[in-house]
Amino acid sequence: PRWHQTFYKDWPTPLKTIEGPRPYNPRDMPYYQGAKQLGRSFLTDPYISPVTGRQVMSLSHPIYFQGKLVGVAAITATLSRLSHFLWLHRVTPNSISAILNDDNSLIVAPFSDGQLANAPEQKDSAFLSEAIPKITEALSKGDPNTISATTVETDVLGQPHVISLSKIGQGQIVKWKLLTITPEMDFIGPLQKTNSLIIALICVLLPLQILLIHRAAKRISAGIVAISREVNDIRQINLANPAPSGIPLKVREVAELGQGVALLRSALRSFSQYIPMGVVRDLIRTGNPIAPGVESRQLTILFSDLENFSTIAEEHNAQGLLEQLTEFLTASTSAIAEEMGTVDKFIGDSVMAFWGAPHPVADQQLRACAAALRMSRRLDALNQRWLSEGKTKLKVRIGIHSAQVLVGNIGSTDRLSYTAIGDGVNIASRLEGINKQFGSTICMSDSVYEAVQGQIASRALGVVSVKGRKGQCMVYELLGFSDTTDAELAPALTPRVAQGDLAPT
Fold first, then answer.
1. In this structure, are residues 321 and 426 in contact, taking their beta carbons and an 8 Å threshold?
2. 3-state DSSP call for residue 391?
3. 345-385 confidence digits (pLDDT tens)
4. Contact 180, 163 (CB under 8 A)
């Protein structure tokens, strides 16, 4: 056989290639014989390479063709790097780490290949040769198959040592153990000196500590009392009030506690902007953790959407349009809050809100109608200002429906959303879209109309089929409240022209 070696410094560019007669027969090597006999992957014990003269290990695997062994592929690696790693990563300067085979025979010791200068190879090797049999005997009382990480104290080496034996290979090929031997004095020696010093310091500092504790207690108590008042304020959900100033927080820890309470107030206030305030209040007052769960309730659901907003967004400046959208959503949120509604979510330029959860609302249908009117009238006021500023006019469409739905915390165990689901929610969303076909602004279902008739001004739009509801239902356009002095709730007298008959959906 011919010898062919290619050396690389930076893959894949070869550095040099050597060819010539092979100095040994690879079929006599342990990696070939082991893989041939086992018929599977085989890891050799350490041996001296006939090529480099270094201690190496080989991992080999047989190659079969049509059921016949035609060769063995092997990877051979020197142990110098692993030996150097064991030497560099000692627990203490006097500890020794080694890798043992499954039968507790030594595989790798620090600098076992003797390639680096000043390596205490002879000392460590001799010590390990003496220590390993004694350690094995000391650990033989237990079941070696159950040892995954065992640490014992023993004086079998002439003085107490802390010995750690851990499995680092669990497969059929690699079954190694990491042995660490550390003199006990490496741990307790510095501690004994430290203990003596501590005892002396305690005798001197104890009287001084008593005096300081007395003075610090006065400072701490004053700050804690002030912080306690602020925590009670937070418990009462007074998040809108600013944190009290002038709290005497002279102790650093108490000052940090005060900062934490202030941060809690700010976080809860920010949290309430994402979660309905009613849910936040219940969470703080009850102290119960939030978990997935829903209940069936009668809710009045409102959906709003800006007409042709996607088209407008493509044709206008994004930043300016965002400012307009923010103004509209702010006005809508305040209108819903004024009528005791719960803003469920913003879906782009759309708003979903409902009445009746998390707390019951007796006149939920009437309040939903009031909120819808306020949203529409406040957008009209915004449009007048926007047009004077040369900005785009926006138009809102609103759908209102009242039904029995499921409401509560919905989502995964990692992230929840307080929302409502069910056919009633889908119907409210589709009622918002029906406005487009009738040229109306606020469309409500017959379930809402029956609850508020006599208190509102409205007009019948027609009988339609709404997906999610059996049969047909009459839908109405909300024009205003019949008897009110509130300008935002007064009926709108602007005539509206229907866009034709609504086809069943």
1. no
2. coil
3. 888 889 999 999 888 888 999 999 999 999 999 999 999 99
4. yes
User: What one-character-per-residue DSSP string does 294-306 give?
Assistant: EEEEEEEEEEEEE
Transcribe 409-470 into DSSP letters.
EEE-SS-EEEEEESHHHHHHHHHHHHHHHHT-SEEEEHHHHHHHTTSEEEEEEEEEE-TTSS
Please give the Cα distance from 356 to 19 (Å, whole number).
87
Q: How far apart are CA 383 and CA 400, in angstroms?
A: 23
Q: What are phi and psi of 132, to 5 degrees?
A: -60, -45
The conformation of residue 70, written as its DSSP 8-state character, comes to E
Burial (Cβ within 10 Å: 0-12, 13-18, ≥19) of residue 481 = buried
With beta carbons less than 8 A apart as the criterion, state whether 222 and 248 touch: yes
Q: DSSP H helical segments within 309-411, as ranges?
A: 309-315, 318-338, 364-388
> Virtual CA dihedral for 102, 103, 108, 109, nearest 10 degrees?
130
**Under a CB-based contact definition with an 8 Å cutoff, are residues 401 and 447 in contact?**
yes
376 and 396 in contact (C-beta within 8 Å)?
Answer: yes
- Distance CA(435)–CA(180), nearest Å, equals 78
User: Is cis: bond before 491, omega within 30 of 0?
Assistant: no
Distances (CA, A) of 364 to 330, 445, 454: 21, 14, 16
Band (pLDDT 50/70/90 cuts) for residue 70 is very high
Handedness of CA 493, 496, 501, 505 (dihedral sign): negative
Query: 341 with 302: CB under 8 angstroms?
Result: yes
145: which DSSP letter?
Answer: G
* Cβ atoms of 399 and 431 closer than 8 Å: yes
Specify whether the CB–CB gap between 98 and 163 falls below 8 A: no
In single-letter form, the type of residue at position 191 comes to L
Determine the distance from the C-alpha atom of residue 281 to the mean position of all C-alpha atoms in its chain, rounded to a whole number: 25
Q: Which amino acid is at 370?
A: A
Tens digits of per-residue pLDDT, 194-249? 888 888 888 888 888 888 887 777 766 766 766 776 776 666 566 655 555 555 55
HEC assignment per residue over 203-251? HHHHHHHHHHHHHHHHHHHHHHHHHHHHHHHHHCCCCCCCCCCCCCCCC
With tokens 């839908």, the residue in question is 475
Find the mean pLDDT for residues 398-408.
Answer: 93
Round to whole Å and give the CA distance between 47 and 107. 10
Phi-psi region of 57 (alpha: psi -120 to 50; beta: other; left: phi over 0): beta
Confidence of residue 115 (pLDDT cuts 50, 70, 90): very low
Task: Give how far Cα 79 sits from Cα of 51, 53, 390, Å.
Answer: 15, 12, 78
